[in-house]
Records
---
Amino acid sequence: MIRKLVFDLPTRIFHWLFSGLFITAFLIAKTIDSDSLVYTYHMLVGLTLGFAVVLRLIWGVLGTKHARLSDFSLNPRDLISYFIGILRGEKRKWAGHNPASSWAALCMMAFAMISSLTGYLMTSGTAKENFEDFHEISANAFMVVALVHVAGIVVHTVRYREWIGLSMVDGKKADVSAGEEIGSQRGGVALLFLGLVIAFGINLVRNYDFQSRTLKFVGTVLTLGENKTHDD
Ligand code: HEM
Ligand code: HEM
């Protein structure tokens, strides 16, 4: 079966960076004591994740056909008929994101931004308690959507007997109609994207003071260790 290119390289690199950074931030938060120095990496990884999403959103405007946000299938009616179609056993395929994965992708990017922003606010001197619950809820909701997304990939693989996960590796899908494939991998943009995310992460580590456990970040100082200045 002929497989055609639908997802460019920047989109695929984003995908694996995004999932890797999220899993790392989440696992550190749930398994490491917040007093530990390792917990610092939770914040650094979380901020890098937020930066990667900003770049992905820019690529969502400038990118190739199926990377563009305008290509996402976000009409609620399409989502309902997508699920009805599954119940009826219909096997319609999408070249880009289907309605369920469009919504899942958008929700995950939104939860990543909310988690990053509330994390930033919690550590920038604003009352931590105000954002703590919000931060935890958005991170947990993020995990739920990510698990549903992976379950959806498994269901698709079984239903269509197609290794759909491969499309996020080599960018190709089967049964793509004429005109839906893209012409270029955009390797140069992918390199730039990867370079920017790595440079952002390295810059965070370089601006982090391990003694005071503070981070200089765009004009503010974030306190990334437990704040011991309280009387308690
Ligand atoms: C083994 C695990 C995974 C596989 C095989 C996989 C596979 C895929 C595939 C095939 C798509 C495109 C879906 C479509 O055709 O509509 C996709 C999109 C996406 N996945 Fe995953 N995924 C995995 C794990 C994750 C995890 C853990 C996350 C988040 C934490 C995630 C976040 C996303 C996002 C944000 C998109 C949209 C990408 C974009 O348009 O930039 N994935 N994934
Ligand atoms: C964007 C991805 C992020 C995810 C998925 C995430 C997830 C989490 C989770 C699951 C917790 C533990 C909540 C609990 O069960 O008690 C947590 C706590 C926390 N996170 Fe994040 N977070 C992210 C980003 C950030 C960022 C960017 C910062 C700061 C710059 C940050 C700062 C914190 C702090 C200060 C805590 C509380 C630690 C304590 O218990 O004192 N997070 N985060």
---
Amino acid sequence: MPPALVCDIQRFSVHDGPGIRTTVFCKGCPLRCRWCQNPEALRFENELIFSSERCIACGECAKACPIQAIRHDHGPHINWEKCDACFVCTEACPARALEPAAREFSPAALVKELVKDREFYEPEGGVTLSGGEPLARPDFLQELVPLIKHENLHLAVETCGHFNWESLQPVLKQTDLVLFDLKALSEDLHRKLTGQSNLVILENLRRIIAKGIPRHLRMPVIPGLNDSEDELKRIAKFLIELGETEIVLLPYHRLGESKLEKLNSELKPLGIPSMSEKELQAKSEVFIKAGLRVRKP
Ligand code: SF4
Ligand code: SF4
């Protein structure tokens, strides 16, 4: 089985499920949310990242590139179309200004990393698989998840909901908590904001609820994009009809934007400020009035 590409393993995370957790950011996602906080995790293939703040303008990368995809002129200029992600330049760079976006892990190697933090997981923490879309690799998860459970670790999975239900049944049965992100209820709006229809996503959400799989339903609130009163009311009504009682609202913040210029990303900065506590509270009122509890992440 091919290894998984992992962008980051973030330790001591407190916003990705209960307790203290180790969060694994898997690479690859079928959606292209315009506000993505982890743009380095969007493509399924590995890619080059250039952190200009680390660069000492030594020119070693341009000398090392076997296909002249880097030109040196007071610093490196990368021809992103030409670069074939061979990563020879990352070996030559003395400042770690050039790096692969992700590293390869086998299921066993990943679990070996996760158990290192075991003592911090007590009493209610554990491991969270995030991304990207962690459920995009059923073959990998079918091997990884039993290993995580064999170690008796609490497992949460953060998902955009766009996954193949049939092939993930064994995985979901062993998942302790699904963190399910709903971006928009209107199909047209969802397609406009993420590049994909939400029909599969809504169907998977219905199935998760019907199966009684423990879940936190979450919504990233993006000012001017998915937070109109009508849209929020529609989402609240939909969740109540499904018998849900609460929602977690995730306020938009700009942290992901600084990563865009390091990549050859198809996303562009939204150019809107991070959301304030007061703005989020105003959006929460729509859900509260509809009868839902609103929780912080
Ligand atoms: S990753 Fe390979 S092709 Fe791309 S710039 Fe570096 S050395 Fe050149
Ligand atoms: S090798 Fe690294 S430090 Fe030197 S110019 Fe290239 S990116 Fe900058």
---
Amino acid sequence: MSYCRLCQKDRVLRNSHIVPEFLYGELYNNKHQLMGIHGRGSKGCEVQQKGLREYLFCDDCEQHFNECFEKPFRRAWVENCPLLDPWEAEDVYWIHVDYKSFKLFHLSVLFRAGVSSLPTFAQVSLGPHEERLRRMLWEQDAGPVELYPIFGYAVIHHKTKRVVQMVSKAQANKFGGRRCYGFMYGGVQWWIGVASDTNHELQKVSLRCDGQMPFTAVPWNEVSVVQEASHVLRKGGI
Ligand SMILES: [Zn+2]
């Protein structure tokens, strides 16, 4: 028995994913192994059979994550992929999603990363946002647009323009002076702002309450975390 980080009860904990397993699907190579991207660690590169896991949540809470956040995102983003692939568009391309389930999915990844003690997610330090996010996920409350704004850009190969599928370590950055946490999965580098501000420029590029979200594409060799990952993979001989 141990303390579940979502319901906060003493329960038997499951070995939980931080980023859901289905987002690693296209990363399996022909040996059916996964190229895990850890950044520049002492080992350089580690090949894993599955995504990173940690004992964090009870069975009921895992079901809650799965039914409320992961299944809708998997259907909307992975099975009916709305990204252009290849991405030839020069201009901003708008994608329509379900505001509530889409936003809650990304917040669930951020929350999992925040409560994780794994080095891959060490950049994420939520402080008082951890409890706020926990409540929002528990109550399935996506909050208003200015609270935890989400924006992102598709990551594409510089020549083929095909969308690059990769799961990255967590990143922390500042946009317009606001702290944001970043994750790459589902062909997109996502950023979530952890401060709310009703008049901030981030909102112009973020998910809107009607579910509209603007996307552009950035070549993989201009995305620092992908460059770092490819360097690690080369070092590891993959
Ligand atoms: Zn629980």
---
Amino acid sequence: MPETMRAIIKPRPGSGLEMTTVPIPKIGPRDVLVKVRATSICGTDVHIYKWDAWAASRIKPPLIIGHEFCGDVVEVGSAVRSIRVGDFVSADSHRYDGTCPVCRKGQPHICANLEIFGVDTDGCFAEYVALPESSAWVNDPGLDPAIASIQDPCGNAVYAVLVEPVAGQSVAIWGDGPTGLFAVGVARAAGASLVAHIGKYPQRLAIGKAMGADLSIDISQPGVDVVRTLLQATQGVGVDVVVEMTGNPRAVTEAFAAVRKGGRFSAFGIPSQPITVDLNNQVIFKGVTIYGINGRQLWQSWYQMAGLFRSGALNVLPVITHQIKLDEFQRGFDLMTAPDRVAAKIVMYP
Ligand SMILES: [Zn+2]
Ligand SMILES: [Zn+2]
């Protein structure tokens, strides 16, 4: 066992990241040590890379970043019971204490003392990563490592779409980032009668089609009326389920206008400012149910996701546009920040 490893760190406040050599983390009695097989770049990592206002307020360098990964367990702590050396694992990035009232009421994904892996603690853009047994998820041994690495964001999509069943229902999804694209696939796999996808980048909308969208609405085209298009597609009734994954005020307004009376609104996109909602007409009189979606339902979303992969109904490979070496991380971040948005999910191999 080597003593040191390569890792990508935010060395100090400011933009950029560095590849460096650091000690392999030591594990406590309730932790496991994982040799990383694959890791993927998230929008959160891009915020940290750019060092925007959110990153400056939250991140305390030096920090190993990254929170989406899979790998093989090489060591387990003395108190670990459910994980063995050799298990192929991923992890949920939301670390919970298990003891606060929110956790004890069965909602650990929004723990009162929540910490996010790779944001508040050292992450996985490295050769090895230590994590608590309580955060680990054991994958099917044959799962493609590229797919196993993207389960944290795919699990967001599973939670957002399947917080209530969608079989036989019309579903509209705003957002052509990776989570929106995964959501299209989840809605299709779970038997939605109509999957409408709203985005603004042609290449992304094409991936949405590959994921199973019946109807793509490109808001970059002049004269596009998203609400009217969705009403026409649902005989004027409105959509049963709307899933908002952009946080854009225009999209939020459209989603409230397009959801049918008695329908469901899954709110996942994060607006940069507080936004206005007409509570009377858009929620109360319409009888709309709103779910705030943060993280993944632990561990229901993971079981559902594993089941969708096993069934063959959900193929996420169209969303994984690039597979590169961890050493090429700079190219990965250049692709993630390119204005053309050709890259969706980028998987890196240490
Ligand atoms: Zn992520
Ligand atoms: Zn808690």
